[in-house]
Automatic annotation (TrEMBL):
Named cofactor requirement(s): Mn(2+)
Protein name: DNA ligase (ATP)
EC number(s) given by UniProt: 6.5.1.1
Residue intervals of the ATP-dependent DNA ligase family profile domain: 87-228
Reactions listed under catalytic activity: ATP + (deoxyribonucleotide)n-3'-hydroxyl + 5'-phospho-(deoxyribonucleotide)m = (deoxyribonucleotide)n+m + AMP + diphosphate
Length: 646
Protein backbone atom coordinates (compact mmCIF):
# COMPACT_ATOMS: atom_id res chain seq x y z
CA UNK A 1 0.00 0.00 0.00
CA UNK A 2 1.33 3.42 -0.98
CA UNK A 3 0.76 6.89 0.45
CA UNK A 4 -0.43 9.92 -1.51
CA UNK A 5 1.78 13.02 -1.42
CA UNK A 6 0.01 16.13 -0.11
CA UNK A 7 1.37 19.63 0.34
CA UNK A 8 0.19 20.26 3.90
CA UNK A 9 -1.01 18.32 6.94
CA UNK A 10 -4.69 17.61 7.47
CA UNK A 11 -5.84 18.05 11.05
CA UNK A 12 -8.82 15.80 11.66
CA UNK A 13 -9.89 13.08 14.06
CA UNK A 14 -9.35 9.40 13.29
CA UNK A 15 -5.78 9.77 12.01
CA UNK A 16 -2.49 8.45 13.37
CA UNK A 17 0.98 9.78 12.53
CA UNK A 18 4.46 8.32 12.18
CA UNK A 19 7.89 9.31 10.95
CA UNK A 20 8.46 9.13 7.20
CA UNK A 21 11.59 7.03 7.17
CA UNK A 22 14.06 7.87 4.41
CA UNK A 23 14.90 4.36 3.25
CA UNK A 24 13.85 1.34 1.19
CA UNK A 25 10.36 -0.08 1.59
CA UNK A 26 10.50 -3.82 2.28
CA UNK A 27 8.16 -6.67 3.08
CA UNK A 28 9.32 -9.58 5.24
CA UNK A 29 7.69 -12.98 4.79
CA UNK A 30 8.33 -15.27 7.75
CA UNK A 31 6.90 -18.77 7.74
CA UNK A 32 8.11 -21.73 9.81
CA UNK A 33 11.71 -20.56 9.81
CA UNK A 34 11.75 -19.65 6.12
CA UNK A 35 12.36 -15.97 5.47
CA UNK A 36 12.08 -13.73 2.42
CA UNK A 37 12.90 -10.03 2.37
CA UNK A 38 11.67 -8.30 -0.78
CA UNK A 39 11.51 -4.78 -2.19
CA UNK A 40 8.55 -2.90 -3.64
CA UNK A 41 9.40 -4.18 -7.13
CA UNK A 42 9.76 -7.75 -5.84
CA UNK A 43 13.56 -7.90 -5.78
CA UNK A 44 15.31 -9.69 -2.99
CA UNK A 45 17.03 -7.72 -0.23
CA UNK A 46 18.35 -10.88 1.43
CA UNK A 47 21.94 -10.51 0.26
CA UNK A 48 22.11 -6.72 0.04
CA UNK A 49 20.86 -6.15 3.60
CA UNK A 50 22.08 -9.39 5.11
CA UNK A 51 22.03 -8.23 8.77
CA UNK A 52 18.27 -7.61 8.56
CA UNK A 53 17.72 -10.92 6.79
CA UNK A 54 19.80 -12.83 9.35
CA UNK A 55 18.00 -11.14 12.24
CA UNK A 56 14.59 -12.00 10.80
CA UNK A 57 15.59 -15.68 10.66
CA UNK A 58 15.84 -15.63 14.46
CA UNK A 59 12.37 -14.10 14.92
CA UNK A 60 10.22 -17.17 15.41
CA UNK A 61 6.90 -15.90 14.04
CA UNK A 62 4.73 -16.79 11.05
CA UNK A 63 3.76 -13.46 9.54
CA UNK A 64 4.06 -10.98 6.69
CA UNK A 65 5.44 -7.64 7.89
CA UNK A 66 5.56 -4.30 6.05
CA UNK A 67 8.27 -1.80 6.87
CA UNK A 68 11.24 0.34 5.83
CA UNK A 69 14.96 -0.48 5.87
CA UNK A 70 17.03 2.55 6.92
CA UNK A 71 20.50 3.54 8.07
CA UNK A 72 20.42 5.61 11.25
CA UNK A 73 22.93 8.09 12.57
CA UNK A 74 23.78 8.52 16.26
CA UNK A 75 20.72 10.74 16.74
CA UNK A 76 18.30 8.21 15.29
CA UNK A 77 17.76 10.08 12.01
CA UNK A 78 17.72 8.10 8.77
CA UNK A 79 19.89 9.02 5.78
CA UNK A 80 19.01 7.81 2.31
CA UNK A 81 22.52 8.64 1.06
CA UNK A 82 24.06 6.45 3.74
CA UNK A 83 21.65 3.66 2.82
CA UNK A 84 22.57 3.92 -0.87
CA UNK A 85 26.26 3.68 0.02
CA UNK A 86 25.75 0.83 2.51
CA UNK A 87 27.75 -2.30 1.71
CA UNK A 88 28.57 -3.73 5.12
CA UNK A 89 27.95 -3.18 8.82
CA UNK A 90 30.90 -0.80 9.00
CA UNK A 91 28.98 1.62 6.74
CA UNK A 92 26.25 2.38 9.26
CA UNK A 93 23.57 1.02 11.55
CA UNK A 94 20.88 -0.81 9.59
CA UNK A 95 17.40 -0.85 11.13
CA UNK A 96 14.21 -2.43 9.82
CA UNK A 97 11.32 -0.24 11.03
CA UNK A 98 8.08 -2.24 10.79
CA UNK A 99 4.69 -0.53 10.74
CA UNK A 100 2.09 -2.99 9.44
CA UNK A 101 1.04 -6.63 9.71
CA UNK A 102 -0.55 -8.21 6.62
CA UNK A 103 -0.69 -11.88 7.52
CA UNK A 104 -0.42 -13.88 10.76
CA UNK A 105 -0.48 -17.63 11.39
CA UNK A 106 -2.31 -18.36 8.15
CA UNK A 107 -4.81 -15.50 8.37
CA UNK A 108 -5.07 -12.59 5.93
CA UNK A 109 -5.28 -9.39 7.97
CA UNK A 110 -5.40 -6.84 5.14
CA UNK A 111 -9.15 -6.29 5.59
CA UNK A 112 -8.83 -5.48 9.29
CA UNK A 113 -8.66 -1.79 10.32
CA UNK A 114 -5.11 -0.47 10.62
CA UNK A 115 -5.47 0.15 14.35
CA UNK A 116 -6.19 -3.56 14.92
CA UNK A 117 -3.34 -4.67 12.66
CA UNK A 118 -0.99 -2.46 14.69
CA UNK A 119 -2.22 -3.94 17.98
CA UNK A 120 -1.54 -7.46 16.71
CA UNK A 121 1.90 -6.40 15.43
CA UNK A 122 2.87 -4.98 18.81
CA UNK A 123 2.07 -8.35 20.44
CA UNK A 124 4.76 -10.01 18.27
CA UNK A 125 7.47 -7.99 19.94
CA UNK A 126 10.15 -8.16 21.28
CA UNK A 127 11.93 -8.81 18.00
CA UNK A 128 15.69 -8.95 17.27
CA UNK A 129 17.43 -5.65 18.07
CA UNK A 130 17.75 -4.67 14.42
CA UNK A 131 13.94 -4.83 14.00
CA UNK A 132 12.02 -1.93 15.56
CA UNK A 133 8.39 -0.94 15.76
CA UNK A 134 7.80 2.38 14.02
CA UNK A 135 6.04 4.44 16.70
CA UNK A 136 2.64 5.94 15.92
CA UNK A 137 1.18 9.07 17.52
CA UNK A 138 -2.54 9.64 17.94
CA UNK A 139 -2.82 12.27 20.68
CA UNK A 140 -1.41 15.10 18.60
CA UNK A 141 -2.27 17.16 15.54
CA UNK A 142 -0.65 16.73 12.15
CA UNK A 143 0.56 20.34 12.29
CA UNK A 144 2.33 19.84 15.62
CA UNK A 145 3.79 16.52 14.54
CA UNK A 146 5.08 18.02 11.29
CA UNK A 147 6.62 20.93 13.22
CA UNK A 148 8.41 18.52 15.57
CA UNK A 149 9.63 16.45 12.63
CA UNK A 150 10.93 19.58 10.93
CA UNK A 151 12.73 20.63 14.11
CA UNK A 152 14.45 17.27 14.25
CA UNK A 153 15.59 17.42 10.63
CA UNK A 154 13.45 14.54 9.36
CA UNK A 155 12.34 13.96 5.77
CA UNK A 156 8.64 14.17 6.57
CA UNK A 157 5.69 12.46 8.22
CA UNK A 158 3.06 9.87 7.29
CA UNK A 159 -0.60 10.25 8.22
CA UNK A 160 -2.79 7.14 8.20
CA UNK A 161 -6.51 6.67 8.86
CA UNK A 162 -6.99 4.48 11.89
CA UNK A 163 -9.73 2.45 10.19
CA UNK A 164 -7.95 2.05 6.83
CA UNK A 165 -7.73 -1.43 5.32
CA UNK A 166 -4.62 -2.50 3.38
CA UNK A 167 -4.90 -2.00 -0.40
CA UNK A 168 -1.95 -3.86 -1.91
CA UNK A 169 -0.19 -1.88 -4.65
CA UNK A 170 -2.64 1.03 -4.45
CA UNK A 171 -1.70 4.65 -3.74
CA UNK A 172 -4.48 5.45 -1.33
CA UNK A 173 -5.71 8.70 0.17
CA UNK A 174 -6.16 6.80 3.44
CA UNK A 175 -2.38 7.13 3.78
CA UNK A 176 -0.80 10.55 3.21
CA UNK A 177 2.79 11.66 3.13
CA UNK A 178 3.94 15.20 3.85
CA UNK A 179 7.55 15.98 3.03
CA UNK A 180 9.70 18.57 4.76
CA UNK A 181 12.13 20.49 2.58
CA UNK A 182 15.21 22.10 4.05
CA UNK A 183 16.14 25.55 2.75
CA UNK A 184 19.43 27.37 2.53
CA UNK A 185 21.01 30.37 0.83
CA UNK A 186 23.76 29.55 -1.70
CA UNK A 187 26.09 31.53 -3.94
CA UNK A 188 25.83 31.06 -7.71
CA UNK A 189 29.27 30.29 -9.16
CA UNK A 190 28.24 29.24 -12.66
CA UNK A 191 25.73 27.43 -14.83
CA UNK A 192 25.74 24.48 -17.22
CA UNK A 193 24.36 23.81 -20.67
CA UNK A 194 23.59 20.20 -21.56
CA UNK A 195 24.38 18.97 -25.04
CA UNK A 196 21.41 19.37 -27.44
CA UNK A 197 19.37 21.32 -24.86
CA UNK A 198 17.33 24.32 -26.02
CA UNK A 199 17.09 25.83 -22.53
CA UNK A 200 19.06 28.99 -21.67
CA UNK A 201 20.84 26.89 -19.02
CA UNK A 202 20.45 23.37 -17.60
CA UNK A 203 21.50 23.87 -14.00
CA UNK A 204 23.07 26.35 -11.60
CA UNK A 205 26.39 25.53 -9.95
CA UNK A 206 26.28 26.76 -6.37
CA UNK A 207 28.27 26.80 -3.16
CA UNK A 208 28.93 28.46 0.17
CA UNK A 209 31.93 30.29 1.56
CA UNK A 210 34.25 28.58 4.04
CA UNK A 211 37.44 30.33 5.19
CA UNK A 212 37.16 32.76 2.32
CA UNK A 213 36.84 30.05 -0.36
CA UNK A 214 33.74 29.06 -2.30
CA UNK A 215 33.02 25.38 -1.62
CA UNK A 216 30.81 23.55 -4.12
CA UNK A 217 27.50 22.22 -2.77
CA UNK A 218 25.77 20.98 -5.91
CA UNK A 219 23.77 21.59 -9.09
CA UNK A 220 20.26 23.05 -9.08
CA UNK A 221 18.33 21.82 -12.10
CA UNK A 222 14.70 22.35 -11.14
CA UNK A 223 12.43 25.17 -9.98
CA UNK A 224 12.82 27.47 -13.01
CA UNK A 225 10.25 28.67 -15.53
CA UNK A 226 11.39 29.59 -19.06
CA UNK A 227 10.78 33.27 -18.33
CA UNK A 228 12.81 33.09 -15.12
CA UNK A 229 15.70 31.40 -16.91
CA UNK A 230 15.83 34.20 -19.52
CA UNK A 231 15.70 36.82 -16.79
CA UNK A 232 18.52 35.11 -14.88
CA UNK A 233 20.66 34.90 -18.02
CA UNK A 234 20.47 38.68 -18.38
CA UNK A 235 21.70 38.96 -14.79
CA UNK A 236 24.50 36.45 -15.37
CA UNK A 237 25.93 38.00 -18.55
CA UNK A 238 28.06 40.78 -16.98
CA UNK A 239 29.42 38.34 -14.35
CA UNK A 240 30.86 35.75 -16.74
CA UNK A 241 34.51 34.86 -16.07
CA UNK A 242 37.00 32.40 -17.59
CA UNK A 243 37.95 30.39 -14.50
CA UNK A 244 36.02 28.49 -11.86
CA UNK A 245 35.36 30.47 -8.66
CA UNK A 246 35.15 27.27 -6.60
CA UNK A 247 38.03 26.12 -4.39
CA UNK A 248 37.91 22.80 -6.27
CA UNK A 249 36.45 22.75 -9.75
CA UNK A 250 33.31 20.58 -9.70
CA UNK A 251 33.04 17.56 -11.97
CA UNK A 252 29.84 18.53 -13.76
CA UNK A 253 29.80 15.36 -15.88
CA UNK A 254 30.27 12.93 -13.03
CA UNK A 255 27.92 9.92 -13.41
CA UNK A 256 25.72 8.88 -10.52
CA UNK A 257 24.04 5.63 -9.58
CA UNK A 258 20.77 6.88 -11.03
CA UNK A 259 22.30 8.62 -14.07
CA UNK A 260 25.24 6.42 -15.11
CA UNK A 261 25.41 8.15 -18.50
CA UNK A 262 24.45 11.81 -17.95
CA UNK A 263 24.18 14.25 -20.88
CA UNK A 264 27.45 16.00 -21.61
CA UNK A 265 27.45 19.46 -20.05
CA UNK A 266 29.60 22.57 -20.48
CA UNK A 267 30.13 25.01 -17.64
CA UNK A 268 30.09 28.80 -17.78
CA UNK A 269 31.69 30.37 -14.71
CA UNK A 270 30.42 33.47 -12.91
CA UNK A 271 31.83 35.89 -10.42
CA UNK A 272 30.46 34.66 -7.05
CA UNK A 273 28.25 37.65 -6.29
CA UNK A 274 24.66 36.41 -6.67
CA UNK A 275 22.73 34.65 -3.92
CA UNK A 276 19.69 32.43 -4.29
CA UNK A 277 17.64 30.25 -1.98
CA UNK A 278 17.37 26.51 -2.52
CA UNK A 279 15.28 23.73 -0.97
CA UNK A 280 16.75 20.24 -0.72
CA UNK A 281 16.23 16.85 0.92
CA UNK A 282 19.56 16.53 2.73
CA UNK A 283 23.29 17.20 2.57
CA UNK A 284 25.34 14.14 1.63
CA UNK A 285 28.53 13.13 3.44
CA UNK A 286 30.64 14.95 0.82
CA UNK A 287 28.76 18.22 1.37
CA UNK A 288 26.51 18.11 -1.72
CA UNK A 289 22.74 18.75 -1.65
CA UNK A 290 20.38 15.95 -2.60
CA UNK A 291 17.27 16.86 -4.68
CA UNK A 292 17.88 20.64 -4.71
CA UNK A 293 15.26 22.95 -6.16
CA UNK A 294 15.50 26.68 -6.91
CA UNK A 295 13.27 28.82 -4.69
CA UNK A 296 14.24 32.38 -5.66
CA UNK A 297 16.95 35.05 -5.70
CA UNK A 298 18.03 36.75 -2.49
CA UNK A 299 18.97 40.35 -3.21
CA UNK A 300 19.08 41.06 0.52
CA UNK A 301 22.12 38.84 1.08
CA UNK A 302 25.79 39.57 0.51
CA UNK A 303 27.49 36.59 -1.11
CA UNK A 304 30.44 36.72 1.32
CA UNK A 305 28.01 36.25 4.22
CA UNK A 306 26.63 32.96 2.85
CA UNK A 307 28.31 30.17 4.80
CA UNK A 308 27.44 26.58 5.57
CA UNK A 309 24.71 26.30 8.17
CA UNK A 310 25.47 23.76 10.89
CA UNK A 311 22.31 22.11 12.23
CA UNK A 312 21.71 22.36 15.95
CA UNK A 313 22.29 18.92 17.52
CA UNK A 314 19.11 16.98 18.11
CA UNK A 315 19.79 16.78 21.85
CA UNK A 316 19.79 20.57 22.06
CA UNK A 317 16.64 20.77 19.96
CA UNK A 318 14.90 18.33 22.25
CA UNK A 319 15.87 20.30 25.34
CA UNK A 320 14.32 23.43 23.89
CA UNK A 321 11.27 21.80 22.30
CA UNK A 322 8.02 22.42 24.11
CA UNK A 323 6.33 19.56 22.33
CA UNK A 324 7.17 16.41 24.33
CA UNK A 325 6.44 14.07 21.46
CA UNK A 326 9.75 15.12 19.86
CA UNK A 327 11.63 13.06 22.42
CA UNK A 328 9.56 9.98 21.55
CA UNK A 329 9.91 10.07 17.78
CA UNK A 330 13.46 8.80 17.44
CA UNK A 331 15.41 5.98 19.04
CA UNK A 332 19.13 6.79 18.79
CA UNK A 333 21.58 4.11 17.81
CA UNK A 334 23.30 2.69 20.86
CA UNK A 335 27.07 2.60 20.97
CA UNK A 336 28.74 -0.76 21.34
CA UNK A 337 31.12 -3.20 19.81
CA UNK A 338 32.09 -2.94 16.17
CA UNK A 339 30.27 -4.83 13.47
CA UNK A 340 31.93 -6.44 10.46
CA UNK A 341 33.79 -4.44 7.81
CA UNK A 342 33.20 -6.64 4.75
CA UNK A 343 29.94 -8.10 3.50
CA UNK A 344 29.63 -11.89 3.07
CA UNK A 345 29.09 -12.02 -0.69
CA UNK A 346 31.44 -9.81 -2.72
CA UNK A 347 34.87 -11.36 -3.37
CA UNK A 348 36.47 -7.94 -3.87
CA UNK A 349 35.52 -4.87 -1.87
CA UNK A 350 36.97 -1.37 -1.59
CA UNK A 351 36.82 0.49 1.71
CA UNK A 352 38.13 3.85 2.86
CA UNK A 353 39.98 3.44 6.16
CA UNK A 354 41.54 6.47 7.87
CA UNK A 355 41.13 8.36 4.56
CA UNK A 356 43.09 5.67 2.70
CA UNK A 357 41.37 3.53 0.08
CA UNK A 358 42.08 -0.19 0.51
CA UNK A 359 41.12 -2.85 -1.99
CA UNK A 360 40.35 -6.15 -0.31
CA UNK A 361 40.58 -8.99 -2.83
CA UNK A 362 40.26 -12.80 -2.80
CA UNK A 363 37.92 -12.58 0.17
CA UNK A 364 36.45 -16.03 -0.44
CA UNK A 365 39.86 -17.70 -0.22
CA UNK A 366 39.87 -20.26 2.60
CA UNK A 367 42.69 -19.56 5.07
CA UNK A 368 41.84 -22.25 7.65
CA UNK A 369 40.78 -25.32 5.60
CA UNK A 370 39.48 -27.50 8.44
CA UNK A 371 37.17 -24.81 9.80
CA UNK A 372 36.52 -23.12 6.41
CA UNK A 373 37.43 -19.69 7.77
CA UNK A 374 38.22 -17.27 4.94
CA UNK A 375 40.36 -14.23 4.35
CA UNK A 376 37.15 -12.21 4.80
CA UNK A 377 36.70 -13.71 8.27
CA UNK A 378 40.27 -12.75 9.18
CA UNK A 379 39.89 -9.17 7.96
CA UNK A 380 36.56 -8.76 9.75
CA UNK A 381 38.20 -9.99 12.96
CA UNK A 382 41.05 -7.47 12.72
CA UNK A 383 38.62 -4.65 11.94
CA UNK A 384 36.56 -5.50 15.02
CA UNK A 385 39.53 -6.04 17.33
CA UNK A 386 41.44 -2.98 16.06
CA UNK A 387 40.70 -0.71 19.09
CA UNK A 388 42.20 -3.36 21.38
CA UNK A 389 45.20 -4.59 19.38
CA UNK A 390 46.41 -1.25 18.01
CA UNK A 391 47.99 0.03 21.27
CA UNK A 392 50.41 -2.93 21.02
CA UNK A 393 51.20 -2.28 17.36
CA UNK A 394 51.24 1.52 17.10
CA UNK A 395 54.62 3.04 16.19
CA UNK A 396 56.34 -0.36 16.24
CA UNK A 397 58.21 -1.87 13.28
CA UNK A 398 56.61 -5.08 12.08
CA UNK A 399 57.86 -8.37 10.73
CA UNK A 400 55.22 -9.58 8.28
CA UNK A 401 54.55 -13.33 8.35
CA UNK A 402 52.54 -13.73 5.16
CA UNK A 403 50.25 -16.63 4.27
CA UNK A 404 48.74 -15.57 0.92
CA UNK A 405 47.16 -19.01 0.43
CA UNK A 406 46.18 -19.77 3.99
CA UNK A 407 47.83 -21.75 6.75
CA UNK A 408 48.39 -24.83 4.58
CA UNK A 409 50.02 -22.85 1.76
CA UNK A 410 53.55 -21.56 1.39
CA UNK A 411 54.36 -18.72 3.78
CA UNK A 412 57.22 -16.26 4.02
CA UNK A 413 58.52 -13.48 6.24
CA UNK A 414 58.79 -9.98 4.86
CA UNK A 415 60.77 -7.37 6.74
CA UNK A 416 61.71 -4.97 3.96
CA UNK A 417 58.85 -2.98 2.41
CA UNK A 418 61.01 -0.49 0.50
CA UNK A 419 59.22 0.46 -2.74
CA UNK A 420 56.51 -2.12 -2.07
CA UNK A 421 54.14 -0.31 0.29
CA UNK A 422 51.88 2.70 -0.43
CA UNK A 423 53.33 6.15 0.26
CA UNK A 424 51.10 6.63 3.30
CA UNK A 425 52.62 3.63 5.08
CA UNK A 426 55.17 4.72 7.69
CA UNK A 427 58.56 2.97 7.60
CA UNK A 428 61.65 2.63 9.80
CA UNK A 429 65.14 2.23 8.30
CA UNK A 430 67.62 -0.55 8.98
CA UNK A 431 71.02 -1.49 7.58
CA UNK A 432 71.78 -5.09 6.57
CA UNK A 433 75.05 -6.95 7.04
CA UNK A 434 75.41 -6.82 3.26
CA UNK A 435 75.48 -3.03 3.38
CA UNK A 436 71.95 -2.50 2.09
CA UNK A 437 69.58 0.15 3.37
CA UNK A 438 66.08 -1.22 3.90
CA UNK A 439 62.88 -0.34 5.73
CA UNK A 440 60.57 -2.06 8.16
CA UNK A 441 56.89 -1.29 7.96
CA UNK A 442 55.56 0.61 10.99
CA UNK A 443 51.99 0.20 12.19
CA UNK A 444 50.27 3.51 12.92
CA UNK A 445 46.51 3.06 12.77
CA UNK A 446 43.64 0.91 11.61
CA UNK A 447 44.48 1.34 7.93
CA UNK A 448 48.00 -0.04 8.39
CA UNK A 449 46.66 -2.95 10.47
CA UNK A 450 44.20 -3.90 7.73
CA UNK A 451 46.83 -3.32 5.04
CA UNK A 452 49.05 -5.94 6.71
CA UNK A 453 46.19 -8.39 7.13
CA UNK A 454 45.18 -7.87 3.49
CA UNK A 455 48.67 -9.02 2.47
CA UNK A 456 47.94 -12.33 4.16
CA UNK A 457 49.73 -11.47 7.41
CA UNK A 458 47.59 -13.67 9.63
CA UNK A 459 49.53 -12.78 12.77
CA UNK A 460 50.81 -9.40 13.91
CA UNK A 461 54.45 -9.39 15.02
CA UNK A 462 55.54 -6.05 16.50
CA UNK A 463 58.84 -5.04 18.05
CA UNK A 464 59.01 -4.73 21.83
CA UNK A 465 60.07 -1.09 21.40
CA UNK A 466 58.72 1.88 19.47
CA UNK A 467 60.37 3.99 16.80
CA UNK A 468 60.70 6.91 19.23
CA UNK A 469 62.92 4.82 21.58
CA UNK A 470 64.05 1.84 19.48
CA UNK A 471 66.66 0.66 22.01
CA UNK A 472 64.31 0.74 24.99
CA UNK A 473 61.60 -1.96 25.13
CA UNK A 474 58.21 -1.26 26.65
CA UNK A 475 58.10 -4.66 28.32
CA UNK A 476 60.22 -7.62 29.37
CA UNK A 477 59.03 -10.99 28.05
CA UNK A 478 59.28 -14.51 29.41
CA UNK A 479 58.26 -16.87 26.61
CA UNK A 480 57.36 -20.38 27.74
CA UNK A 481 58.04 -22.50 24.66
CA UNK A 482 57.30 -26.23 24.99
CA UNK A 483 58.43 -29.11 22.80
CA UNK A 484 56.34 -32.00 21.53
CA UNK A 485 57.38 -33.96 24.61
CA UNK A 486 55.77 -31.49 27.03
CA UNK A 487 52.16 -31.37 28.13
CA UNK A 488 50.25 -28.10 28.29
CA UNK A 489 49.69 -28.80 31.99
CA UNK A 490 53.47 -28.48 32.38
CA UNK A 491 53.34 -25.14 30.55
CA UNK A 492 50.60 -24.01 32.94
CA UNK A 493 52.66 -25.12 35.95
CA UNK A 494 55.68 -23.20 34.60
CA UNK A 495 53.56 -20.07 34.20
CA UNK A 496 52.29 -20.42 37.77
CA UNK A 497 55.86 -20.71 39.08
CA UNK A 498 56.86 -17.66 37.01
CA UNK A 499 54.09 -15.71 38.71
CA UNK A 500 55.30 -16.94 42.13
CA UNK A 501 58.81 -15.73 41.33
CA UNK A 502 57.47 -12.32 40.30
CA UNK A 503 55.25 -12.14 43.39
CA UNK A 504 58.30 -12.83 45.57
CA UNK A 505 59.97 -9.66 44.30
CA UNK A 506 56.74 -7.61 44.22
CA UNK A 507 56.67 -7.38 40.43
CA UNK A 508 53.37 -7.58 38.55
CA UNK A 509 53.41 -9.74 35.43
CA UNK A 510 50.68 -10.16 32.83
CA UNK A 511 50.12 -13.36 30.91
CA UNK A 512 48.56 -14.39 27.62
CA UNK A 513 48.31 -17.53 25.57
CA UNK A 514 50.71 -17.60 22.66
CA UNK A 515 47.92 -18.91 20.44
CA UNK A 516 50.29 -21.70 19.43
CA UNK A 517 51.66 -23.97 22.17
CA UNK A 518 52.98 -21.74 24.93
CA UNK A 519 52.31 -18.87 27.30
CA UNK A 520 53.83 -15.37 27.25
CA UNK A 521 54.43 -13.32 30.39
CA UNK A 522 54.98 -9.57 30.07
CA UNK A 523 56.48 -7.23 32.66
CA UNK A 524 55.89 -3.50 32.01
CA UNK A 525 59.05 -1.35 31.69
CA UNK A 526 57.71 1.86 30.10
CA UNK A 527 60.85 2.12 27.90
CA UNK A 528 63.00 3.09 30.89
CA UNK A 529 65.70 0.46 30.35
CA UNK A 530 67.86 -0.80 27.50
CA UNK A 531 67.46 -4.18 25.85
CA UNK A 532 70.62 -5.40 27.62
CA UNK A 533 69.22 -4.43 31.02
CA UNK A 534 65.87 -5.96 30.13
CA UNK A 535 67.46 -9.24 29.00
CA UNK A 536 69.58 -9.58 32.15
CA UNK A 537 66.48 -9.08 34.27
CA UNK A 538 64.65 -11.68 32.19
CA UNK A 539 67.53 -14.09 32.58
CA UNK A 540 67.35 -13.82 36.38
CA UNK A 541 63.61 -14.61 36.32
CA UNK A 542 64.07 -17.53 33.91
CA UNK A 543 66.86 -18.93 36.07
CA UNK A 544 64.69 -18.86 39.19
CA UNK A 545 61.88 -20.63 37.36
CA UNK A 546 64.24 -23.31 36.07
CA UNK A 547 65.66 -23.87 39.56
CA UNK A 548 62.12 -24.52 40.79
CA UNK A 549 61.26 -26.86 37.88
CA UNK A 550 64.47 -28.51 36.72
CA UNK A 551 62.76 -31.72 35.56
CA UNK A 552 60.91 -30.22 32.61
CA UNK A 553 62.25 -26.69 32.02
CA UNK A 554 65.43 -25.40 30.42
CA UNK A 555 67.15 -22.09 29.81
CA UNK A 556 69.56 -23.52 27.24
CA UNK A 557 69.62 -21.51 24.03
CA UNK A 558 70.63 -24.44 21.79
CA UNK A 559 67.69 -26.70 21.00
CA UNK A 560 69.72 -29.90 21.23
CA UNK A 561 70.78 -28.98 24.77
CA UNK A 562 67.20 -28.59 26.05
CA UNK A 563 66.54 -32.35 25.92
CA UNK A 564 62.85 -31.97 25.16
CA UNK A 565 62.13 -29.57 28.00
CA UNK A 566 60.10 -26.33 28.08
CA UNK A 567 62.33 -23.46 27.04
CA UNK A 568 62.00 -20.54 29.46
CA UNK A 569 63.03 -18.02 26.83
CA UNK A 570 64.35 -14.64 27.98
CA UNK A 571 66.33 -13.97 24.80
CA UNK A 572 63.21 -12.54 23.11
CA UNK A 573 64.32 -9.38 24.92
CA UNK A 574 66.64 -8.18 22.18
CA UNK A 575 66.51 -5.52 19.44
CA UNK A 576 64.33 -6.36 16.42
CA UNK A 577 62.87 -9.49 18.04
CA UNK A 578 59.15 -9.92 17.54
CA UNK A 579 56.38 -11.90 19.18
CA UNK A 580 52.70 -12.35 18.35
CA UNK A 581 50.83 -9.32 19.70
CA UNK A 582 48.05 -9.58 22.27
CA UNK A 583 44.76 -10.35 20.46
CA UNK A 584 46.62 -11.46 17.32
CA UNK A 585 45.32 -14.38 15.30
CA UNK A 586 47.74 -17.24 14.76
CA UNK A 587 48.21 -19.33 11.62
CA UNK A 588 47.28 -22.49 13.50
CA UNK A 589 44.39 -24.97 13.24
CA UNK A 590 41.31 -23.57 14.92
CA UNK A 591 42.27 -19.96 14.10
CA UNK A 592 43.48 -19.42 17.65
CA UNK A 593 44.05 -16.02 19.23
CA UNK A 594 46.88 -14.90 21.51
CA UNK A 595 44.60 -14.06 24.41
CA UNK A 596 45.42 -12.09 27.59
CA UNK A 597 44.35 -13.96 30.71
CA UNK A 598 43.60 -13.30 34.33
CA UNK A 599 46.05 -15.27 36.44
CA UNK A 600 43.26 -17.31 38.01
CA UNK A 601 42.47 -18.62 34.51
CA UNK A 602 45.95 -20.15 34.23
CA UNK A 603 45.02 -23.52 35.64
CA UNK A 604 44.39 -27.11 34.66
CA UNK A 605 41.80 -27.34 31.90
CA UNK A 606 42.99 -24.26 30.01
CA UNK A 607 43.24 -24.98 26.28
CA UNK A 608 44.75 -22.96 23.44
CA UNK A 609 41.62 -23.40 21.30
CA UNK A 610 39.48 -21.85 24.04
CA UNK A 611 40.19 -18.53 22.31
CA UNK A 612 39.65 -18.34 18.57
CA UNK A 613 38.35 -16.19 15.73
CA UNK A 614 34.71 -17.02 16.51
CA UNK A 615 34.52 -16.39 20.25
CA UNK A 616 37.35 -14.04 21.20
CA UNK A 617 35.61 -10.79 20.33
CA UNK A 618 32.74 -11.50 22.71
CA UNK A 619 35.23 -12.00 25.55
CA UNK A 620 37.26 -8.91 24.64
CA UNK A 621 34.17 -6.69 24.37
CA UNK A 622 32.91 -7.94 27.71
CA UNK A 623 36.20 -7.73 29.65
CA UNK A 624 37.89 -4.86 27.86
CA UNK A 625 41.66 -4.79 27.50
CA UNK A 626 42.90 -6.60 30.62
CA UNK A 627 46.47 -6.43 29.25
CA UNK A 628 46.48 -2.62 29.32
CA UNK A 629 48.77 -2.28 32.40
CA UNK A 630 51.60 -3.68 30.25
CA UNK A 631 51.69 -0.24 28.61
CA UNK A 632 51.57 1.55 31.94
CA UNK A 633 54.01 3.00 34.45
CA UNK A 634 56.51 0.15 34.47
CA UNK A 635 58.56 -1.34 37.27
CA UNK A 636 61.47 0.24 39.11
CA UNK A 637 64.10 -2.32 38.11
CA UNK A 638 66.86 -0.85 40.28
CA UNK A 639 64.65 -1.01 43.34
CA UNK A 640 63.73 -4.62 42.54
CA UNK A 641 67.37 -5.64 42.04
CA UNK A 642 68.44 -4.02 45.30
CA UNK A 643 65.75 -6.02 47.11
CA UNK A 644 66.85 -9.39 45.68
CA UNK A 645 70.59 -8.94 46.20
CA UNK A 646 71.90 -11.13 49.06
Amino acid sequence: MLATLVDKPVDASGWMYEVKWDGYRAVALLNKGNVQLISRNNKTFEEKFYPVFNALKTWKINAVIDGEIVVLNADGISSFTDLQNWRSEADGELIFYVFDLLWLNGYDLTQLPLIQRRELLERLFPAPDIVRMSTTFRDTSATDFLAAASQLGLEGIIAKKEDSIYHTGVRSRDWLKIKISKRHEVVIGGFTNNENSSKPFSSLLVGVFENGQLQYTGKIGTGFSSALQKELMRTFKPLIRKTSPFATEPDINKPSRFRPDPPKAVATWLKPQLVCEVSYAEITSDGVMRHPSFEGMRTDKDAKDVTREIPVPVTQTLEKATNTLSAQMLTPVKGGSRKTLLNPSEATQVKKINKHELKFANLNKVYWPEEKYTKRDMLNYYYQVAPFILPYLKDRPQSLNRFPNGIKGKSFYQKDVTGKAPEWIKTFPYHTSDGEDKNFMVATDESSLLYMANLGAIEMNPWNSRTSKPDHPDWCIIDLDPTDKNTFEQVIKTAQVTKAVLDSINVQGYCKTSGSTGIHIYIPLNAKYTYDECQLFGKWIATQVHLELPDFTSIERMTQNRKGKIYVDYLQNRPKATLAAPYSLRPKPGATVSMPLHWDEVKKGLKMKDFNITNSLARINEMGDIFKPVLGKGIDMKKVLRAIQP
